[in-house]
Amino acid sequence: MKAIEIKNNQIKFNKFIYALAPMAGVTDFAFRKICADFGADMVVSEMISLKALYNHSAITSKMLREDSSAIRCCQIFTHEADIIKPVFDAESFKNFDIIDLNCGCPAPKIVKNKDGCAMMSDLQNSKKVISALVENCHKPVSVKFRLGINGQENYLEFAKMCKECGVQFLTLHARTREQGYAGKVDKSAYKKLIDAVKIPVFWSGDIISIEDANFAKQIGCAGVMIGRAALGNPEIFSLLKGTTPPYSKKQAIINHLELLKTYFKTEKTLVAYFKKHLMWYVRASKNATQIKQEILHFENLAQIEELINNLD
Ligand SMILES: Cc1cc2nc3c(=O)[nH]c(=O)nc-3n(C[C@H](O)[C@H](O)[C@H](O)COP(=O)(O)O)c2cc1C
Question: Cα 275 vs. chain centroid, distance in angstroms?
Fold first, then answer.
């Protein structure tokens, strides 16, 4: 039986879901494919600007590549209801199964533009945007959000509005916008949310162990999204699910790089981008501090490939 079934834009979760959380600048198509290989049941893209797609940005369109074997969720951000229909009429999202709306990004440049977590401070407009998305995107819609913004914790009210609009599931990162990524998530918020909306809820925030995932399962979450614990560590999915990894970390790094070679146009942009992933991949290596210093100074692919060859 499939972990997730989708029929007539309705989602049915047949078991507890382990998902790769959306991470801008991290969950590229190659990393999503690798996490799916290691057992992620669902993978979520980096957040994609709907406005950029509306304006026919070639760079943003390229981000819609999807090669993974998991359930494929594309996260978008917008605060403009009227650009939704034209973008989705263009079939740009044909590679994805689910559309997720970002209502949780705390970054100043996003919030200043009324996107991300700012959506939680204007429920009237959010309702218009989410309704337009449900009506026009031809796929099930989910929403990811935080506890609140500007000192107001209105996540329950916000979630009820999402449900009324026809959203299929919700993902809560139980910190406020002001908290950013600091401190711990408010563990009590997830159960309150489940009780309030009675639609599937995903737990996002601080999941790093089997015990964490089991706690989310016990309180009734539909699944967990893994963010920072997956950085340079796609094996986390095998670990959490108790399955045998399909290949080694070294092979994961090689696969990631090979796939990205088919994506970036120049060696310079590929090297600049992959160095960040490589730093995460080597975090647990012997001499990690020294290796990371070396990576900082890398300027070409040959240096990256030599380092990968020399890894255990
Ligand atoms: C580098 C980075 C980028 C992120 N980008 C996004 C994003 O594009 N969309 C989103 O909804 N959340 C984003 N997040 C938040 C994560 O999806 C997740 O909710 C948060 O990191 C808490 O989960 P964790 O403790 O498992 O990392 C990002 C987090 C990190 C660390």
Answer: 20
